Amino acid sequence: MAKISYLECTKCGDHLTADEPRTICPKDGGSLYVRYDLKPYIGKLKPEHLSGSAGSMWRFADLLPDAPPVSLGEGNTPMI
Predict the structure, then answer these.
(1) Which end of the chain is less crowded, N or C, counting CB atoms within 10 A of the terminal residue's CB?
(2) pTM above 0.85?
(3) Is 10 left (phi over 0), alpha (psi -120 to 50) or beta?
């Protein structure tokens, strides 16, 4: 599972720790993007590894935090 590196404010660009759950920047109310440490996966995860996987965002489970899958019946959600 990918490790969360930090949370990044969409307004001011500040980096915040992910030690506590939060969705907005305490400084200016900007939304927070989760930034993952993907360095361990560079060159290892290839598109062919995803073929045949479930048609949901959970096909990216190796790149998501360690959490039980939750689904609302969504389809082939792209990872942006």
Answers:
(1) C
(2) no
(3) alpha
